[in-house]
Amino acid sequence: MSTVHQAFKRARWEYVLKHFNVSMDMESLDGLDNHFHKTSMDFITVDDAITSLVIDLSRKFELGIVTNGLYDPKQKLFNMGIGEIFSDDKVFHAEQLGYRKPDPLIYYKALEYFNREPSETLFIGDSWTHDVIAPMEIGMEAIWVNDKNVLPPTSHKPFAIVSDIAEIRNVLLGKSV
């Protein structure tokens, strides 16, 4: 692993742990990261409703993944049963790119790959800051998966707000859940 790549991973863990007022030395951060990677994928499994939704969406739309995840996104997609839908070049992973959401560069990287303008793109996610505000501020539409049923913290008006990812089927494909 390159020094830059390792420094990026450590900085991400430090950022997460800071919210819990926890700090660790570099060796402990590396140990936490290794343990996370060894155990986390055991909890990612196939959800038939999500698999069906993604397959149906892929028939009508070009799909990509933009993620800050602290994991191997390809392994997660494989464990979810949708790995074959997303080739490596359609997964934009902060850890590999060196910048993370909400940095506009990560969204522009995906737009460049798909040869799309922001106005031609819809971003879906569960983070108000990373998946609604940031994409909308560069000109994309957004769907917010608000599974915690909280009020939007800003005045941004996404394309849709859903309480469950399965509701996206009706929003984008016009079919009942």
Automatic annotation (TrEMBL):
Cofactor names: Mg(2+)
Magnesium as UniProt keyword: yes
Keywords: Hydrolase, Magnesium, Metal-binding
Coiled coil feature spans: none
Biological process, per Gene Ontology: small molecule metabolic process
Record keyword Nucleus present: no
GO molecular function: metal ion binding; phosphatase activity
Protein's name according to its UniProt entry: HAD family hydrolase
